[in-house]
């Protein structure tokens, strides 16, 4: 049974018409960077809850979530209407194994995200725990339009902090923009453009591990491609592999 605690809205950042970040205060239990929790609201007398990844590091007091409004969704239009000092409920305990401890030994850690799924990586990178063992971390954010790169400034700040270890790469699918790759994650792996741009190749010699987060079809397509073309397999708790995933729906 989920134990719920009361949360107070501190701030809402509206990045675009549909993308927003919710900052709240709540007495949650400790969580591990990369995990998600559940947010809950009363909608027409009925309690609705949905899963959201923490964007903030566990060491940061304010809790932050990066959300896309689904106009005909049951929950997000209500979340978008919240104002500072409003209340909602949050699960006290976090969930999930999309965490650094679950990643086997490797040199290059690829963090690939579509849309709002950049969140767990930002939590991991802001927390910094357990990242010393990687030679390179490659953070890839794939979005439809340039305006959807809400956390680009934070990504660039993190790049500076990591002093050469962190590589950042943006991908835009629905417009061509200088300085960003154009297309989708699996296509840009298939044609080697992602690896050529970063200067690191993806292979199955255990020097690379791929984290995939977000759009479930992106995860299916990328995993299939990596399996067929690079002989890379899903990482299981009882059988270490090269690919660790988190589906958003
Ligand atoms: C482990 C986990 C972590 C999640 N973390 C986040 C998060 O940090 N931020 C976030 O915005 N959502 C996240 N989600 C999705 C979230 O739980 C809800 O499904 C989403 O907010 C839609 O709720 P809704 O009731 O408004 O829409 P619903 O009525 O439930 O409609 C769902 C449909 O909206 C689309 N959709 C749902 N979520 C997304 C998304 N994030 N990006 C693109 N399309 C989407 C899909 O087509 C899906 O079928 C997460 C889901 C899981 C399982
Ligand atoms: N982004 C917006 O401006 C916007 C505005 C209003 C509402 N919405 C709604 O919000 C929801 C989510 O939108 P979103 O843009 O955050 O998430 P999204 O649809 O998952 O798109 C994010 C990125 O993932 C890519 N992608 C989608 N399917 C893929 C696959 N099979 N393999 C590889 N890459 C894939 C998209 O490329 P493609 O572009 O090629 O699909 C895009 O670059 C949708 O229901 C949308 O209608 C979005």
CATH topology term of the largest domain: Rossmann fold
Overall average pLDDT: 97
Shape: globular
Can you say what the CATH homologous superfamily of the largest domain is? Nucleotide-binding domain of ferredoxin-NADP reductase (FNR) module
- Please indicate the percent range of residues in DSSP E strands (runs of 2 or more): 25-35%
Count of discrete structural domains:
2
CATH class of the largest domain: Alpha Beta
Gross CATH architecture of the largest domain: 3-Layer(aba) Sandwich
User: How many β-strand stretches?
Assistant: 12
Order of helices and strands: EEEEEHEEHEHEEHHEHE
Total DSSP helices:
6
Low-confidence stretches: none
Measured between the Cα atoms of the first and last residue, the distance is 22 Å
Structural class: alpha/beta
How would a textbook summarize the main sheet?
6 strands, antiparallel
Bound compounds, each kind once, are: flavin-adenine dinucleotide, NADP nicotinamide-adenine-dinucleotide phosphate
Widest sheet: strand order?
4-3-6-1-2-5
Return Rg in Å. 18 Å
Helical fraction? 10-25%
Cofactor: FAD
Pfam families: FAD_binding_6 (PF00970), NAD_binding_1 (PF00175)
Protein name: Flavodoxin/ferredoxin--NADP reductase
Domain FAD-binding FR-type: 2-101
């Amino acid at each position: 049974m989920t134990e719920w605690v009361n949360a107070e809205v501190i701030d809402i950042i509206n990045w675009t018409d549909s993308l927003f970040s919710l900052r709240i205060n709540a007495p949650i239990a400790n969580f591990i960077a990369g995990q998600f929790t559940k947010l809950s609201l009363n909608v027409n007398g009925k309690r609705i809850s949905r899963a959201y990844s923490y964007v903030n590091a566990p060491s940061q007091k304010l809790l932050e979530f990066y959300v896309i409004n689904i106009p005909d969704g049951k929950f997000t239009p209500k979340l978008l209407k919240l104002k500072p000092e409003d209340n909602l409920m949050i699960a006290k305990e976090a969930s999930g194994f999309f965490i650094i401890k679950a990643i086997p030994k490797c040199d290059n850690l690829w963090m690939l995200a579509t849309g709002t799924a950049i969140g767990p990586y930002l939590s991991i990178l802001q927390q910094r725990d357990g990242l010393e063992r990687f030679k390179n971390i490659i953070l890839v954010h794939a979005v439809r339009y340039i305006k959807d790169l809400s956390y680009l400034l934070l990504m660039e700040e993190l790049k500076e902090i990591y002093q050469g270890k962190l590589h950042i790469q943006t991908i835009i699918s629905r417009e061509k923009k200088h300085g960003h790759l154009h297309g989708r994650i699996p296509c840009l792996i298939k044609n080697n453009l992602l690896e050529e741009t970063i200067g690191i190749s993806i292979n199955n010699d255990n020097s690379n591990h791929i984290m995939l987060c977000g759009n479930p079809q992106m995860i299916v397509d990328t995993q299939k491609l990596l399996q067929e073309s690079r002989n890379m397999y899903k990482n299981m708790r009882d059988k270490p592999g090269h690919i660790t995933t988190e589906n958003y729906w």
